[in-house]
Amino acid sequence: MKFSLFNRTAGLRAGQHAVVTGGSSGLGLALSHRFAACGLSVTLVARDKARLATAAAELSDAVPSAVIDYIAVDVADNEALEAAFGKLPVAVDLLVNSAGIIREGYFEKLDAADFHDVMNINFFGTVNCVRATLPRLKRQGGRIVNIASVAGLTGVFGYTSYCAAKHALVGFTDALRFELEPQGVRVQVVCPGEFDSPMVDDLDRTRTPENRRHTLTIPKLGIEDLADATVAGIDSGQRLIVPGAQTRLLVTAQRLAPSIANAIARQRISTAYRGPGV
Ligand SMILES: NC(=O)c1ccc[n+]([C@@H]2O[C@H](COP(=O)([O-])OP(=O)(O)OC[C@H]3O[C@@H](n4cnc5c(N)ncnc54)[C@H](OP(=O)(O)O)[C@@H]3O)[C@@H](O)[C@H]2O)c1
After folding, report:
1. Which of 189, 234, 188, 235 is nearest to 4 (CA)?
2. Distance in angstroms (rounded) separating the CA atoms of residues 191 and 180
3. Contact, 143 vs 8, CB < 8 A?
4. d(CA 28, ligand 1 centre) in Å
């Protein structure tokens, strides 16, 4: 690993406790491996109990000394979440909100349920988890890390629901930071471009050609590099973490020269344009 989790008073430290939503798969699981390897105890959170048990066993095999637990709960179900998180140990030093879903497609082909599901899990699920852990995080002087997306900073073809949820998440995080930093809780947001994960394997089966062309303006990142860059950003206290040099370039271009960046995006989309055909 290219970073050090030690020797930084503000950084992650062995003995701390991390709660990782979406910890049974993809980025949440890759981050959990790194936390466990560095001596943090980890509680994985997701809905599917069998997948959680497999992920926990995989983590324990990789780091036999690690303390690993899991909670099977839907982050969008606030009542169930409050009850389940009520049983967490009093010390929570780090909350990583990685639980998320995606529904890609032409706006005219997505229905109301797609929008509700994406908002409920990606946005309200995170709000619920923050609320349920906040007293513990304040007690520890802990940190919150919300996994958003480049789709939380710019529009992406086919992601009307996903962009809405991730933009909401970025706005929530930026506002929350002003409230919580004076109370000793660090608040960070991660905005990755596309990376290899089960979510993207599923997406690849059905995505529109326009979405493929637009999102792959930036080449897909490997999950190991992404997780290393994310942990380094978390550890060094960056407020906005954008892993990958090409992704950072695109985000910077979008901010400094939005009309040029959008013209390039429109040109790329036009070469694959098919439309909803309604
Ligand atoms: N993959 C990408 O290219 C990409 C790019 C940018 C940002 N992101 C974001 O990064 C995060 C992780 O994505 P990933 O690709 O690692 O996804 P993934 O492999 O599909 O994993 C998603 C995780 O979230 C859990 N989850 C989903 N809905 C949940 C719910 N209602 N309650 C609790 N847990 C739930 C899943 O477990 P269960 O299904 O068992 O609940 C699973 O553990 C997401 O927030 C995603 O939006 C991904």
Report:
1. 235
2. 20
3. no
4. 7
- Closest ligand 1 atom to 74 CA: 32
Which residues does the annotation mark as catalytic?
Answer: 162
- Whole-number pLDDT of residue 11: 85
Residue 68 near residue 20, CB atoms below 8 Å = no
Residues paired with residue 21 on neighbouring β-strands, in sequence order: 45, 97
Output the pTM of the full model.
0.97
CA-based Rg of the chain, rounded to a whole angstrom? Answer: 18
Interhelix angle 125-140/78-85, rounded to 10 degrees, is 20
| Ligand 1 lined by 51 (C-beta under 6 Å) | yes
The CATH number that domain 17-203+220-245 falls under is: 3.40.50.720
Identify the residue whose C-alpha is closest to ligand 1 atom 7: 149
CA–centroid distance, residue 229 to ligand 1 (Å): 18
Report the share of the chain in percent with pLDDT over 90.
Answer: 95
Q: Does the beta carbon of 71 lie inside 6 Å of ligand 1?
A: no
Q: Is the CB of 76 under 6 A from ligand 1?
A: yes
Q: Which of left, alpha, beta for 105 (phi over 0: left; psi -120 to 50: alpha)?
A: left
Confidence of residue 4 (pLDDT cuts 50, 70, 90): very low
Side-by-side strand order, sheet with 143-147 = 68-72, 41-46, 17-21, 94-97, 143-147, 186-190, 240-241
pLDDT band for position 10 (50/70/90)? low
Q: Is the CB of 26 under 6 A from ligand 1?
A: yes
The b-or-e profile of 84-111 (16+ CB within 10 A means b, else e) is: bbeebeeebbbbbbbbbbbbbbbeeebe
User: Locate tokens 């959990």: which residue?
Assistant: 32
C-alpha 82: how far from chain center = 21
Measured CA to CA, the distance from residue 200 to residue 93 in angstroms comes to: 30
